[in-house]
Amino acid sequence: MNKIIYMFAMIIAVVTLVLTNISGISLFTGIIRSAIVFLGVLFVFFIAGHLLRLGILLVNQKPKATEDDN
């Protein structure tokens, strides 16, 4: 699963690099922008994974039994 996320982030970063070069922005600026986009995409997937894990934990929580229930 991680390989898919890295490949998706790499594809988006390469598309960003190509678009910055087409629009006439310098190569160095394009590389910096694509690196920031790559890290940003990985960060978004990282936060989304943690939010999904938190949601699953909250949904699957079992209520605690008290002595009044017995």
In short:
The chain has 70 residues and is mostly helical. It is built from 2 helices and no strands. 77% of the residues lie in helices and 0% in strands.
Distance between the termini: 45 Å
> Could you say how many structural domains there are in total?
1
Largest sheet: none
Number of strands: 0
Shape: rod-shaped
What percent of the residues sit in helical stretches (DSSP H or I)?
Answer: over 70%
Work out the radius of gyration: 21 Å
Q: What structural class results from the helix and strand content?
A: mainly alpha
Question: Explain this structure to me?
Answer:
The protein contains 2 helices and no strands. Helix 1 (2-22) runs antiparallel to helix 2. The chain is mostly helical and 70 residues long. The model has no long low-confidence stretch (mean pLDDT 90). The protein has one domain (2-58). It has helices at residues 2-22, 27-59.
List its traits.
single chain, 70 residues, rod-shaped, mainly alpha
Write the layout of secondary structure elements.
Layout: H1 2-22, H2 27-59
